[in-house]
Amino acid sequence: MPKAKETLLEIDLNALDDNYRYLTSKLKPETKVLAVVKAFAYGSDSVVVAKELVELGVDYFSVAYANEGTTLRNAKIETPILVLHPLPVNFEEIVDRCMEPSIYSRKILEEFIAFAEEKKQTNYPIHLKFNTGLNRLGFVEEDISWIAEILSKSQSIKVKSVFSHLAASEDLNLREFTLGQIETFRKISEKLISKLGYKPLLHCANTSGIINYPEAHFDMVRTGIGLYGFGNDKEENKHLKPIGTLKTIISQIHTVQKGESVGYNRGFIAEKITRSATLSIGHADGIPRSYGKGKGWVTINDEKAPILGNVCMDMIMVDVTNINCEEGDEAIIFGPSTTAEELSAAINSISYELITAISQRVKRVVLRK
Ligand SMILES: *Cc1c(COP(=O)(O)O)cnc(C)c1O
Q: Sign of dihedral through CA atoms 333, 338, 340, 345?
């Protein structure tokens, strides 16, 4: 690929295809696939990624908030979209654009039914979310009776799926806990199905659930991070490839004398003559300040260049004292070699946080086959 001339996020659709095929190879042929494309498809480009996944035969999309689904609809994507975290203020947009809400509380259920009735809907698809241990959003087992009663009184909505979310599917030390969540989910869905009199789709596995818990696949799985190239596990990462490569360039190189400093608040003070490269990427692009003072690094001509001093809004300075490089050379923040998982570990964070933080001012470039 050509060298970057400015800050870019390259999105490799071949890698996306391979990741999709790898993850779906773990499923029974009849298991449906929901691709999670919230937060700009984890910091990449939700429209580009979703269009590719449609080609690959994905069954469902999911976004966190309604406006993210509207972006897909505006791009003429017609696949069903589950909105994971709707609020009453979003109902109009959701129904208007044929999106399907997750219903997770009595308030949301009652308000959505009232809304659907007012809009003269029949059998509008909804997804009932149950809390099986994450304690974030969702109903609990004791709610089933009154939920079934409310549902039986209205023709306006129909339960298309019942789902839950695993709290620690990537952590095998918490296997007992996760198996408990899966069992609770199984019990809840059986009870609900017997009250409803029909069988909605059941789903509770995210990427690590797909990998570690075949018993959690049910009718559909929801994969996010795996599609983008991370398996939350060293072995699994070998089968996946990060789809995003974040690159920038060296804008200027300085020779910093002993005793001089670099950056705001004199965050780095040279103990010897230091060659410093200023890169055109900063915290406004998604490199948190916590990567400063040597915690984070970039790769220039295959060498590791640690960040000097504090991360600025639009720039970082890196140590290139021992690197053969010049102004205009490319610097790689993360990609398939230094991965976002490795880099984020330097500040005790996770790949998810680093990749979703890449700001919208960073140009996206799509690499096609
Ligand atoms: C974000 C999200 C997912 C995707 O999880 P990954 O670990 O990225 O695969 C699945 N389900 C729900 C409810 C989510 O919020």
A: negative
Task: Give yes or no: 264 in active site.
Answer: yes
Ligand 1 centroid to 170 CA: how many Å? Answer: 12
Are 90 and 191 members of one domain?
yes
- Which residues have a Cβ under 8 Å from the Cβ of 86 and sit 6 or more positions away? 65, 66, 94, 101, 102, 108, 112
CB under 6 Å to ligand 1: residues?
36, 84, 165, 206-207, 222-226
pLDDT digits (tens, 9 = 90+) for 15-64: 999 999 999 999 999 999 999 999 999 999 999 999 999 999 999 999 99
Are residues 109 and 224 located together in one domain of the fold? yes
**Does the residue 128 lie in any domain?**
yes
Q: Which contiguous run of DSSP H or E holds residue 43?
A: helix 38-43
7 in a domain, yes or no? no
The number of the ligand 1 atom at minimal distance from the alpha carbon of 170 is 7
The verdict on residue 271 lying in a domain is yes
CATH value at residue 358 = 2.40.37.10
Catalytic residue among 38, 129, 241, 247: 38
Nearest CA to ligand 1 atom 10: 206
CA neighbor of 15 nearest in space, from 200, 245, 204, 169: 245
* Same domain as 215, residue 176: yes
**Residue found under tokens 């398939």:** 336
User: What is the pLDDT at residue 369?
Assistant: 73
> Has 38 been annotated as catalytic?
yes
Domain membership of residue 363 as a residue range: 244-367
